[in-house]
Amino acid sequence: MNRGFIFLLTVLFFNNTIKAQEQNDSSYKDLNEIIIRSFEQNKKASLTTATVKVIELNNADKSNKTSLVNGFNSIAGVRMEERSPGSYRINIRGSSVRSPFGVRNVKVYWNNIPVTDPGGNTYFNQFAFNNFSSIELYKGPASSMYGAGTGGLILINNFDRWQPGVSLEYMTGSYNLQNIFAAASFGTKDNRNQLTYAHNASDGYRIQSAMRRDNFTYQSQIKLTDKQQLNASFLYTDLYYQTPGALTLAEYNANPKAARPAAGTLPSAVAVNASIRQKTMLAGFTNQYKFNSQFSNSTTLYGSFAHIKNSAIRNYERRIEPSFGARTVFSFKEDKLAGNEKSSFQLVAGSELQQGYFNTQVSKNKKGNPDTLQTNDDINYNVVSVFTQADLVLNEQWFLSAGVSFNHNHVEITRLNKYPVLTQTRTYRNEATPRFVIKRKIINNLFLSVTASKGFSPPTVSELLPSTGVISTNLEAESGWNYEANTDYHFSFNHSFVNLNVTAFSFRLNNGLVQRRDSSGADYFVNASVLKEKGIETHAQYIYSLINKPIDYIAVTADYTFNHFRYGKFVQDAADYSNNIIPSVPANTISLAADISFKNGIYFSSTYYTASKIFLNDANTAVAGTYHLLGIKTGWRKTVQKKYKLNFYAGADNLLNETYSLGNDINAQANRFYNAAPGRNYFIGLSFQYLSKK
């Protein structure tokens, strides 16, 4: 079978008769051509004050499409971790130090709808690969416009490209990987509709690590009048994934595929069927109205619901989490300031409201089923944010931005299983979270910018109510100032495009939240005095487009991250962690990617990623070693009559067959830090697309 596949690729490579009807989609695009939405910029990247990195659907396709790990890890300063299939963490400049699981301290939106719930948690694993057309990532505090959070901002857009048609894709691979993606787009330019479905399943690399996800979305965009447009988005996901649990170093070295064994009074992961059943729904409407050519409003109303069942080693948890909210933004624009087409002014003001009514029940776990009730808590979480921002462009030489928000977070936790029933409350307020940016065009296509921003992030529900069951309303919100300088240079010559970007930052975070575990392995959180985070992030990209040559384009990208993250004065009980390295953050990461596409439809891509050693506890006595990941993908695309598209591909991840831990348990009790990632694995897939006239 392998020989037949190689023979097929060889024949296609030398086949020069299929050029006339080929219309290949380039996997790379100049970032400066992309419209940036973050901070209500809605401009080309070179004209914005937000330093944003963009993952597009085309250039995110470097692996088996079960997750976005490869796509996220290709960006300097960003690290996505996967403890097991379906269990993700996203680390933007160290933000996962307070995340034993899930995505916290990073604000996420999907089609203008807040995905991050009022309690501060984000179920990022509800998304499938075909739920986006582009993803914008902003690193550092975004509180000036997006409320609480010091880690960063992720905007997921799923309606950028619309053309009537249908598509179907099937993929299979190692560990019984089964992926199905289907989509249908229909309507007219004034009434656009899109349906998507995704099915992802895998037996997993480790024992007790199988997963299954079924995902359905619907989007609609209706132009009511020349002034008004209504967008609707709906997402439903049914997800089940097993959680094998972390291993000690001895267990990890002996058999990295093993699930957590029984230890003392605690059962094994297999005995309790350690797993999560998660059903989530997200729906929202966005009304865009232009009062005139200068003044407009965008208002989003949404509701979400999550139903979680977590069979864990220590207990069985059931969570019901309905929430709703609204976000409105008023914008005034003057595109030709003082008659100058290259000067403009924009003033933005708005607010965001979120309200959640959650219930969490924790029971004793009896062979994977709930037994005796231990705690039953109602959580009422209310979030209000009011913000404004002014942007000024002077002759496309100076770019100035100043914004500020005021945030109010109020939580009430009522324990229902104890009498008398008592309610604990806490209100987190911040005076202001400003953000200032000055950007200067030095010479043609060379820009220098400096940013000062303040971040504010109160504890999430998972931190106020950790698995110890102790209500922790005594925790303080973390906050601090981030300073960074960025230089960006791009130029073109002889059908070539080059982009160079360097960012240096320094972030001093006060009352940083840090995870701990008690003797039974339950997690809880404490406030560290100061976290001192400094780093350098570099990005280089080279694209060469050939004219009238067998090769369509060649693209090479390289990203490097250097982190110097240290605790300030941090004494916990009898332990002094002052000046220690903050765990979970590698000091160095390198990401490389090379792509080549031929005019006859053949394409090849390869990726390389390495991360230096990672300390796993505050004492810096446990370490996860350096690892090197190499991946390849090759395929053949063909377009017939501009409306039928075929794509046949195959590839492999972790070609070096490295044994490494991705998604370590930080500050774990009994030294259970390690969650092994898959060894060498393969995938193969076929997609078909039919496009009708726009």
Structural account:
The protein is mainly beta. The protein has a single domain, classed as Beta Barrel (Maltoporin, Chain A), CATH 2.40.170. The protein has a 22-stranded antiparallel β-barrel. Strands 3-10-11-7-8 form a five-stranded mixed sheet, with no helix packed on it. The two termini are 40 Å apart.
Walk me through the topology.
Blueprint: H1 2-13, E1 35-36, E2 43-44, E3 52-56, H2 69-73, E4 78-84, E5 87-92, E6 103-104, E7 106-110, E8 113-114, E9 121-122, E10 134-139, H3 143-146, E11 152-157, E12 165-173, E13 177-188, E14 191-202, E15 211-223, E16 228-242, H4 249-254, E17 275-290, E18 295-311, E19 316-334, E20 344-366, E21 369-394, E22 398-415, E23 422-443, E24 446-457, H5 461-464, E25 478-493, E26 496-510, E27 513-517, E28 523-527, E29 530-545, E30 551-567, E31 571-572, E32 575-576, E33 588-598, E34 602-611, E35 614-615, E36 623-624, E37 627-640, E38 644-653, E39 681-691
Parallel strand pairs: 7-11
Antiparallel strand pairs: 1-2, 3-10, 4-5, 6-9, 7-8, 10-11, 12-13, 12-39, 13-14, 14-15, 15-16, 16-17, 17-18, 18-19, 19-20, 20-21, 21-22, 22-23, 23-24, 24-25, 25-26, 26-29, 27-28, 29-30, 30-33, 31-32, 33-34, 34-37, 35-36, 37-38, 38-39
Low-confidence parts, pLDDT < 50 over ≥5 residues?
1-27
What fraction of residues sit in β-strands?
over 45%
Mean pLDDT: 90
CATH architecture identity = Beta Barrel
Determine and state the CATH class: Mainly Beta
Q: How many beta strands in the DSSP annotation?
A: 39
Fourth-level CATH superfamily: TonB-dependent receptor, beta-barrel domain
Total domains: 1
Number of continuous helical runs: 5
Residues in helix, %:
under 10%
- CATH topology name: Maltoporin, Chain A
Instruction: Please state the CA-atom Rg, rounded to the nearest Å.
Output: 25 Å
